[in-house]
Amino acid sequence: MAITMPMTVLKPKSALGGAVLPRLALASLLLVMGIPCHAEWVKVTENNIGNFFVDPSAVVKRGPIREVTEIHNLNQVTRMFKYLSVVIQAEYDCDKKRYRNRHRQEFSDHMGQGTLIASIDMQEDWSDIYPYSPVEMTMKLVCGERSDSSATK
């Protein structure tokens, strides 16, 4: 004689109509997908603020425009910078020597790890690039103005 037990379906209670778990799962998936784990991060440069990295293998080329993901690791948390790393989605115009940031995520640990502190969509206008700045070094790398061997891993 087989005994059957009634199935009980547990649903999370929420003011949002019980959609907490699917939304949490989606948000977690998007966060994990936001920073490529397979990236070959190359150190572009460093200064007294921190280290600047890019993944040259993930650069998207659209004519003279280069879309790139950058990581800036800061040396320390300060009043101005409440995070240790920022992951930036940027665009570089190789012909006109300018750039703009499209999205940024600030993290509590280096290399885009730890707690996500802020995620900001940006609609910046194109900006000029200052000579000898980390932005100029990144532009030269992603626009092919220097060989990959001059960047350090």
Summarize the helices and strands and which ones pair or pack:
Blueprint: H1 20-34, E1 42-46, E2 50-54, E3 60-62, E4 65-74, E5 85-93, E6 98-107, E7 116-121, E8 127-128, H2 134-142
Antiparallel strand pairs: 1-2, 2-4, 3-4, 4-5, 5-6, 6-7, 6-8
Structure description:
- This protein has 153 residues and is α+β, with helices and mostly antiparallel strands.
- It has a single domain, classed as Surface-adhesin protein E (Lipocalin), CATH 2.40.128.
- Helix content is 16%, strand content 33%.
- Strand 5 and strand 6 form a beta hairpin.
Number of strands: 8
- CATH H level: which superfamily? Surface-adhesin protein E
Query: H/E order of the elements?
Result: HEEEEEEEEH
Main beta-sheet annotation: 8 strands, antiparallel
Total of helices: 2
Domain count: the total is 1
What would the principal axes of the Cα set say about the shape? globular
If you consult CATH, what is the topology? Answer: Lipocalin
Mean pLDDT score: 80
- Please identify the top-level CATH class: Mainly Beta
* Cα distance spanning the termini: 68 Å
The helicity comes to 10-25%
Derived from helix and strand composition plus strand pairing, the structural class reads alpha+beta
Percentage of residues in strands: 25-35%
> What would you report as the Rg, rounded to the nearest angstrom?
21 Å
Instruction: Supply the CATH architecture.
Output: Beta Barrel
- Point out poorly predicted stretches: 2-18, 20-34, 147-153
